[in-house]
Amino acid sequence: MLALGLAGALATGAMLGPYPLSPVDVADTLIGHPPDPQAAIVLWNIRLPRVVAAALIGAALAAAGAAYQTVFRNPLVAPDILGVSQGAGFGAVLGILLGLPVLAIQLMGFAFGIGTIALVMAIALALRGMGQVLVVVLCGMAVAALAGAGISLVKLMADPDDQLPAITFWLMGSLAGIKQADVAAALPAIVAGLLPLIALRWRIGLLALGDDEARTLGVEAGRLRLLVILSATLVTAAAVSVAGVIGWVGLMVPHMARLITGPRFDRLLPVALAMGAALMVLVDAAARCIAQQEVPLGILTAVLGGPVFLWLLARGGRTWAE
Amino acid sequence: MRRLRLTALVAGALALAAAAALAAETHTITDATGRQIEVPNDPRRVFAAGPPAATLLYTLKPDAMVGWPRAPGAEDLPFLRPETRDLPALGRLTGKGDTVNLEVLLSARPDLIVDYGTVTATYRDLARRVQAQTGTPYALIDGSLPTIPATLRRLGDLLAEPERGGTLAAYAEATFAEIDAILAAVPEDRRPSVYLARGPEGIETAARGSINAEIIDRVGGRNVVGAGPDGLLTVSPEQVQAWAPEVIVTIDADFAAHVSAMPEWQGVPAVRDGQVYLAPSAPFGFIDSPPSVNRLIGLKWLAEKLYPEEARIDIEAEVTRFYTLFYGVTPDRAALDGLLGTAGHPGE
Asked: Which UniProt key words apply to this protein (chain A) (predicted)?
């Protein structure tokens, strides 16, 4: 059923867009008989890369969020709790300020995102606190605040007519400018980050019991947590560097998935992956269809996702704390 | 030695006071918001509140400038009067994204603050507050394109440069008349659809009727972006494909250089037919950035691009004439090539 829902979302995403293409046109183009050459360009160069990128990014953020919430044993944790989004955001807006080419902006976003987490880890290690979740999180918050200050400074220095609108739009997240090359660039990092999470989903689930319990079951909590942090950082930095900062998905989708599966991480992860992908594809389809103007994803995820989540919550079902 | 320095100081202060007394003769004017303000008869030190006002002030009375809102870039310097190149960057004072510190503003000792642009309640309030705080008269001038001739005359009078204002206003009126004559010869159905591309991805644009795309409307280009609530907006490349513009005008050199190879722009009529034009931007942009009198030469440049047959404009001669008249700098051969050389189609 899950796979069916995801396939439905992907198909819907491929059908919808401002360029007039009927479902038949889309189907014909997909099997290699486009009604006209322009249809092929629109579908292969513009719309499908977006759909694929949306699915990848939605899945990545949801999985990272689910993993974080489990290993930090805290339902309010999102994948950017340690500052990866702010760091990547700072790198990217700095790139915009310097007028760099798009690829360099993305690279700077990715590098700064990874760099931020490296800094957090280094500080936490220096404080001998790698084993303590609280110290790591506090270090993350401090570094994130620093990156946030950097973003504000860049906004202040940016040309208000030219660069500032671009920076603001980028910080709200969008797939408007996505290309095949962007998907190809983000794919390895996202896959490399997701594979350990999927492979180690049993062990990661044990961390929810607490470090001591996990240790009695033969899981080295500190090292596993480090691995989860690195994996989640990798996928989040890759997602943010191509799509900008998209809030809400990493925090809320794991909860929505949990309402279906309950808290066990090994069951939660596949559902979170599929739901994140489907949701992001649909939200991105809405972003390009609602108006002639692109609507930033960050706004849509909050406006559409918030009520859905509250409705699910009100319906009851299984909860986090089970 | 100390006495000598003191004497020099006193002499300097006296000279300043004398200059201040000369400038202190005032009269009362009504600005675009209907505020009555008392302004000096001969303003010597004028602070421009933002880039549009700075451009206007530069063309009318460069020696009264106390600074730039932003430091001019290296590529702009050859096109600016030498005495203005090293003026300090003081920041801007235009509602959103203020960057000037009022103490910095006061230490520049302006006797008049001029703002040029959209006149809204926000700007009226800002003008009133800054004037009350600094004790410096603050005049707001309407910044729409059709009022440019009237603005040049009014501000020329205000700055005690009525002749210069009249000369520039006459050029502006002649430009509008020239554009109207060209448009009279081009029937509606031969006016191309135009997309304004901003940013390296080209997906930032401006709506019909916005100050950023005003000159496209003025030369009869049919902006594919319908009138929107705000000026700048971001769209998806798919939306541009659906619009299928016949001409793309861009202010981003990076976009202009790469658009022909960007997969998502393939098949757009303008890209297919090589109708992508990069607007020159030094020292001020041809399209907007800032939306000021610099757009007069943009009108001619764009008319020549859109209607090469009807608009018999020698654009190099026009640019030379405009830069000499408005900017006080006559570009030489190399400078003209640098300015317009990239203006052809990428890959041409």
From this structure: Cell membrane, Membrane, Transmembrane, Transmembrane helix, Transport
Where exactly are the structural domains of chain A? 2-314
Whichever domain contains B213, its CATH number is 3.40.50.1980
Which of B234, B250, B254 best tests the A interface by mutation, with the highest count of A CBs <10 A?
B234
The model carries a pTM of 0.81
- Using CB atoms within 10 Å of the CB of residue A316, give its burial: 0 to 12 exposed, 13 to 18 middle, 19+ buried: exposed
Do B172 and B149 contact (CB within 8 A), yes or no?
A: yes
**How many CA atoms does the CB half-sphere of A267 hold within 13 Å?**
9
Q: Which of B168, B202, B222 is the last residue of a domain?
A: B168
pLDDT in tens, B127-172: 888 888 888 999 999 888 999 999 999 999 999 999 999 999 999 9
Shared domain for B74 and B138, answered yes or no, is yes
Q: Which of the four pLDDT bands, split at 50, 70 and 90, describes residue B97?
A: low
CA dihedral A147, A102, A167, B233 (to 10 degrees): -160
Task: Give, as one character, the DSSP assignment of residue B71.
Answer: P
Q: How many domains in chain B? A: 2
Return the exposure string of A106-134: e unless at least 16 CB atoms fall within 10 Å of the residue's CB, then b: bbbbbebbbbbbebbbebbeeeebbeebe
- Nearest CB among B70, B201, B266 relative to A45 is that of B266
Q: How far apart are the first and last CA of chain B?
A: 68
pLDDT interval class at A321 (50, 70, 90): very low
Give the sign of the dihedral formed by CA B296, CA B300, CA B305, CA B310: positive
Chain B: closest CA distance from residue A92 (Å): 14
Q: Is B5 a member of any domain?
A: no
Same domain, B149 and B228: no
How do residues B335-345 score in pLDDT, each as one tens digit? 999 898 744 43
Number of Cβ within a 10 Å radius of residue B170: 13
Residue B194 burial (10 A CB sphere; 0-12, 13-18, 19+): buried
**CB-based contact (8 Å) between B228 and chain A?**
yes
Same domain, B109 and B205: no
> Which DSSP state fits B189?
G
Q: How many Cβ atoms from other residues are within 10 Å of residue B75's Cβ?
A: 12
**Using CB atoms, which residue from A41, A166, A294 is nearest to B199?**
A166
Residue B98 belongs to domain spanning: 22-168
CATH number of A2-314: 1.10.3470.10
User: Is B79 a domain residue?
Assistant: yes
Task: Flag whether residue B76 sits within 8 Å of chain A, measured between CB atoms.
Answer: no
| A205 neighbors A266 (Cβ within 8 angstroms) | yes
